[in-house]
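In this section we walk through a basic example: taking a raw amino acid sequence and producing a predicted 3D structure, encoded as discrete structure tokens. The instruction is simple. Fold the sequence below.
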Amino acid sequence: MLRVIFDTNIYGHLLNEPDGGEIEDKIVAETNFIVYGYKPIRKELRDIHTINPLSKRTRNLLLTMYDRITGKHHLPDSGAIFNLAKKYHEQYKWLGGTYGWHTSIKVDFMIVACASINGLDLVCSADNKTLLANKAQEAYDYVNICENLRTPKFLKYEDLLKKFRGLL
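The resulting token sequence is shown next.
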């Protein structure tokens, strides 16, 4: 069984797929692919309406999709996750990373920290500029070795689509 967490952007991408509803159904039905929810992800989805009031319908669709995909599988937030994410960011900056802590990278690093602390197998993202960037992945690996944690593997959005479209 694979224990997985989706980056926030995955839900938006799935919503825009012509066969997104079918893929969502397959993800929900797949008993060997369990997607976990995490409060900062849901908060980012909830906050969509504050960016653009016209996107209230989109926000509701995304929240419904999130709730359906994650079901009863939710991981708690904690100070340990926040502290590990901060360590990732410090190492990322030391490696020459350019994004500051108070950008979208904060939640990205918290997602990876949550996955690492909870022993998840995969983090799925479409974010090549932050969460999947080489400097970020080097930071996760280095810090997790120092903290005796296993870094999850990373699944790109395109590969998620291939898996649930039966192309892998």
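Looking at the output, two observations stand out. Residues 79-94 form the longest helix (16 residues). The chain is about 55% helix and 10% strand. In the next section we compare this with other chains.
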